[in-house]
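Submission checklist for the structure archive. All mandatory fields must be present; incomplete records are returned to the submitter.

[x] Identifier: Stage V sporulation protein AE
[x] Organism: Laedolimicola intestinihominis
[x] Residue count: 118
[x] Sequence attached
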Amino acid sequence: MDYVKAFLIGGLICALIQILMEKTKMMPGRIMVLLVCTGAVLGAVGIYEPFQKFAGAGASVPLPGFGNVLWKGVKEAVDADGFLGIFKGGFKASAVGISAALVFGYLASLIFQPKMKK
């Protein structure tokens, strides 16, 4: 049942974003920034954590989940290191996910041999 719930919640988030992309003139980059900032703000307010516990991977994998991870990292680093935690907390919290994306993206490029569009 966890898989179905994650699929439905993640799909709902993606469907809402697709509607936003089609009904507004916002560029995809701005929408992605909006999603990350929304996740960070909802994490700061305390809403995203219960939502993520309910939705599982459906809430932790999309971009709002990344914003929430950044927020948690900054909060922990500020609690531990003070003002400098603002700058290093997000990097420390998201380093594993970003590194995995880079490594797996590189491995996929070796396997599938991508080409430039003409």
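[x] Structure attached
Curator remark: The helical segments are 2-23, 28-45, 48-55, 57-60, 63-81, 85-112. The mean pLDDT is 89.
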